[in-house]
Amino acid sequence: MRVIEVGVVKGNGIGPEITAASLLVLEATGLPLRWVPIPIAEEAIAAYGHPLAPEVVRQLKAVKVTLKAPLLVEKQHGRLTCTHEDGSEITYPSLNNAIRRELGLFVNPRRIRGFPTISGAHENTDVAIMREITEDVYVGWEHRIGEDAAEAIKLTTRHASTRVARYAFDYARTAGRRRVSSVHKANVLNYTDGLFLDCCRCVAADYPDIAFDDYMIDAACFLFVRHPDRLDVVVTANQYGDILSDLGAGLIGSLGLAPGANIGESAAVFEASHGAAPDIAGKGIANPVALILSGAELLAHLGYRREADAVTDAARAAVGVDAVRTPDLGGEARTMDVAEAIARGVRERMQEAP
What homologous superfamily does CATH list for 119-252? Predict the structure, then answer.
């Protein structure tokens, strides 16, 4: 079997700890994985003088798939400008945003799946959120108006809306899902969210085997909390998707249980849905499950479905044991305790006959 190169961005805050845990688990599959460290943020500044230098972008594009730990983003001061080889410049609102857009990543799939004995009333919740990540207000086009006002532009295009809608319907069909719901606020944002909704409706017509409906974002939040079974695959704009997926993570028990990915035409970056949690960095108590599950999604993306299922099933089984729960889940386990328990489960599953 050929060597499988995977980029690794260890991040900061709790990033290095949960990265080490995740690599341990993925190596337990027995796949010939070769980790390719990629410097971003402080490491990239030290090496290239910029947190996302052109050299770093080239590395990310060359390796094609990357496991990325969370990065610290300072409130109100996260903007950065990237210079391209042709001399053009683009300013992004954050480093995470810059990575996605420099690589041409356009959809952020986040699966919110309940855990037995942890998620309570949301134990059976299973909602896949498809978040468009190239536009909306998160594009970062904003400016001040004097000292007492500021304005942001909400960008919605037919191209981006249609592309993410088609991805959502393709995902639903491939995964055997029954319904796609468009989430918006078209009753107020008639033009922008109205265009997004229209694009989803047009795409839905090409998938008669998949049911389609739509909800306003506030109604969708209510349904998520009270009637999650009415949501299956959700396709939505950038900001709504970010907020809705964090709500879902809270409902199933912790942000530490919610994996994520960023998918493009020629590159993909897999990351947990949570942030860098600097308040617990270095304490060895961070929950690595979300990044481990993101690693499973990475394996599935590469076509290693059996190994991906082994990681997912082992992770879900491990956190069902009280002794393997980190403090965010009410336990006392340490980060590497969780990783080692999951790795054992992976090895056991891989020894079973396929």
Answer: Isopropylmalate Dehydrogenase (3.40.718.10)
